[in-house]
Structure formats: C-alpha cells, structure tokens
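User: Last request for today: this protein with pyridoxal-5'-phosphate, please.
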Amino acid sequence: MAGAAVSALTTLPLSPEVLRSFGPMAKATGDLPVRLDSNENPYGPSRKVLESMLSAVTTANRYPRPEYRGLVQRIAAMHRVQPEQVLLGCGSSEILRVAAVALLSPGKKFVQASPTFETAERYAQLAGAAVISVPLDREFAHDLDSMLSRIDVTTPLIYICNPNNPTGSVTPRGALDAFLAQVPATTTVLIDEAYHHFASQEPGYASFLDHPIENDRIIVSRTFSKVYGLAGMRLGYAIAKPALISRFRPYLTPINVNAVVLRAALVAMDDAEGIEDYVGKNAMIRHEFFNQAEARGLKPIHSSTNFVMMDVHHPAKQVIEHFQQNNVWIGREFPALDTYIRVSLGKAEEMKEFWRVYDMQGGKIGSNEARKG
Ligand SMILES: Cc1ncc(COP(=O)(O)O)c(C=O)c1O
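Assistant: Here's the final one, the structure of the complex with pyridoxal-5'-phosphate:
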C-alpha cells in the first residue's frame, strides 16, 4: 500500500503538463508574469532531479542528518577538500549572512564594490559595521586598487562577487591574486561564485575552487539556485579552511537544509549534461539578446552570466514600472547605475515578449528625446 503511494508520488506529478509548467508563463496562461527578475534557471531542474525530490518527500518526518553529512562529503570530494571545510547554507544568502554576523560588529568596516549583490551589505549593516562601497572600474570589474586603499586592520570582511551581479562582468583572476597578496592578514575575503558555471569559458576568469590558492582567509560561496535550477529549494555552500568554517558554523540554524534538496543536490551535481545544456542554451539566448539590443542602438555590458545589464538612457525606475505594467518582471533598481536595467535571460519566447514590451514605448526608451539630462 505504502509502496503504491510512493510510486504514484514519483510518477503522477511529472506529467507533460507539469514539466511544461516551468514557463514561459505569460504566453501560456495570459496572466502569470514573465519572470526575468531574479537570474533563475528558466528551464527548471531535470526530470532526474525532480524524481529525486519526489522520492525524498517520503522521508519528511525525519531529520535528514545522514543525508546532510552525505552532501557535505560529496561537495568536499568534488572540490578536493575535507568535509570540515564545507558549510551548507539555506541558499548562499545564508552563507553571506553568517559571514557578516560572525565577523562584523560596530566599529568595523565592510568593503564591497558598487553596484554589487546587496545581501552581504544588508547583514553588515545589521551587524553595525560601516559599509564602504567602491565603484566598479570602467570595465565593470572590481576596482581592486581603490578597494585595497580602503582596507585596514578594522576591516574584518570584504566581498568580491565574481562574476558580479548585477553587471554580469568578470574581475580577472590575475588582478585578484595580486590584490589578495596585499590584503591585511586580519581581513577575510568572501568570494561569491554564484554565477561560476556561466563564466568558466571567459578569458581571465578562474574560480578559486577550481584553482585554489594557499590562503587561510578566503571563503568561496556557490549556490544551487542558478545553473542547477533549484532556487526555490534554497541551497548554497561555502568552502574555506576549517578554522574559518568553525567560526561561522555556530551561526547556522541547526540542520538548515531540507531533506528534499539534500537529495536533489546529489543528482543535480552529477548531471554534467544538464549543466552543459543549460549553459549552452543561455549563451545562445544571450547572443540573440545582444543582437536585438544592438538593433535598437543599445550597448549592454558584456555578460558572463545568465543576465544582462544595459543602459536604456532613461530612469530605470520608470522602465521597470513599464515592464511590470505589461506583465514582465525585470531586475530591481541599482542606484549606482540608475539608467541601467538588469534582465535575466529566460526562454526564447520570454525574450521575445521582453522586446515586444520594450518596443511598445514606440522607441521612447533609449531614444534621444527621452534621454535623462
Ligand atoms: C551573486 C549572488 N550571490 C548570492 C545569491 C543568493 O542566492 P541563493 O541564496 O539563492 O543561493 C544571489 C542571488 O541572486 C546572487 O546573485
């Protein structure tokens, strides 16, 4: 009886209708929004991953301790480190939170780029630290010299997002290595590689997990929310030396990762074909996005990610509202680049809808007459 229930669980919900429901939304239903706002994987997890999640549901009454240890070991093996060097997070957002609250306090400084992903900054503020935001350079890379000039013994934490969100740009590895050699021994460097898989072919880019250096003060974070298509399941992790990890661990919620994603992650990590497939599709969609942008006289920032940021020569707030009114969600405002919008790359049909809504302004967005003074 129980067996029959399990088999129904693992087969029934994965009907073609369910699999199709991973968007594009608005075109299919006429009311749900086209979501190009959070840099998610629009295709969703593979069938194998979905099946693993359904099978894990039957363990919902148990704390997933063995599964937790299993995933830690699997991640450690993948990155050729010890399990003591792995910290799992409820999304990599939790990693950013524990790093900030463990290391920062009033009187301390937190240094980051501007614009960059804001979660670490938010927790730095909550911890009472002063946030120092250093503008990106002309190539939209981290301005490492300027950042270095702002770091001293009162700076326990700095944040490097590479590739950077929201600009999609890469900071070259050579420059980062030279920078790290000069950072004071009292400063921890959090390197956020949420978009690593999209950048692996980018000249100048190299991950600190794939190409580690001997440095006790580096912590690298990754997420299952992007290439693995599991944003809704909330899983991220970090790798650092055991001494650093043990400073962060007390700030985690006990068993902070659920039983379903613990199983899904194991399957997703092994799905090299699925990863390659999505990265390839994303590159094609991105290429077409640049063609469309160019045809309208727009010059997006070179992107090594699954989103694109571009200057629309018009206040971003108004452009975002225009899209929202037309059922297309695009990225939030980034005040440091206030005429730029960030567009997550969806499926081909969704991008068509994006450009249709863009063009509805009758060419007003980005036209000379509408340019901000
Ligand atoms: C650079 C970066 N880091 C971390 C995160 C947080 O992701 P999650 O908490 O889903 O792992 C995001 C989400 O968009 C991101 O863009």
